[in-house]
Write a structure and sequence with these properties.
Number of helices: 10
Strand content: under 5%
Oligomer: single chain
Shape: globular
Order of helices and strands: HHHHEHHHHHEH
Radius of gyration: 19 Å
Structural class: mainly alpha
Number of domains: 1
Length: 232
């Protein structure tokens, strides 16, 4: 197996594992019996493995590993979006309306940067080899590509900071924040491909998700600082 195919396969496995852990965290959140949690985890893993294997087999017959990766990203992004919207609608009265307004302004700015400010291209491609763009930039000493990746990281730092502030009691865990960042960047890359506004690059998704994680770390630092001040 060639190195790009190996990296893609590893990424597929990581995505499937993360999907299982995310689903397990949701299913077992209210369970208090440890024995019941263990049995539930085993049963859930078996069902998840069967369904995931069937999904990969079906996707493999339809296309390449690149399409499998894109399909999995879109699937997880859709699940994360539906769960986030459901939780926010259900507990709307408990949301921080001010932070929600700030977050919506950020989403509008993100939409403008990624869609409205771009021109239609004649040809777009799917680039699903992890770190291929970064490796090429380092090999050719191309600072523009490196700057592009750094900007993609910075673009999603507010996502990791603002989203948990909307509803700290429920949305401030990494299980909600990271999927939200991945969901947004996956939908952006997919729509850019469909609307021919840019390439669909896995490196952009990785950089945006990394930016979300970085923003979330800033949020945790801010929250700890706030708690220390309240104690004083």
């Amino acid at each position: 197996m060639r190195t790009p195919q190996l990296m893609q396969t590893v990424l597929v496995v990581i995505l499937m594992l993360c999907g299982y852990l995310y689903l397990l965290q949701i299913v077992t959140r209210r369970a208090s019996n440890k024995n019941a949690i263990t049995v539930l985890a085993i049963v859930l893993f078996f069902i998840y493995a069967v369904l995931s294997g069937a999904l990969i087999i079906v996707l493999s017959t339809l296309g390449s590993v690149e399409l499998i990766l894109m399909a999995l990203l879109l699937l997880f992004a859709s699940i994360a979006l539906c769960m986030a919207l459901y939780g926010m609608i259900r507990d709307f009265r408990l949301l921080n309306k001010g932070m929600l307004a700030v977050f919506l302004v950020y989403v509008f700015a993100l939409t403008y940067i990624t869609f409205l400010s771009r021109e239609t291209r004649e040809r777009t491609v799917i680039l699903m080899v992890p770190f291929a763009s970064l490796s090429e930039a380092i090999r050719t000493h191309n600072p523009e590509e490196i700057n592009h990746m750094l900007l993609n990281v910075a673009l999603f730092v507010p996502m990791g900071m603002l989203f948990p502030m909307i509803y700290p009691e429920k949305l401030s865990t990494v299980f909600f924040v990271l999927p939200m960042g991945m969901m947004c960047t996956t939908l952006i890359e997919s729509l850019q491909l469909i609307l021919r506004l840019g390439h669909c690059d896995i490196d952009d998704i990785i950089a945006n998700t990394l930016g979300t994680l970085l923003g979330y770390l800033f949020y945790l630092i801010y929250r700890r600082f706030q708690r220390s001040r309240d104690i004083e």
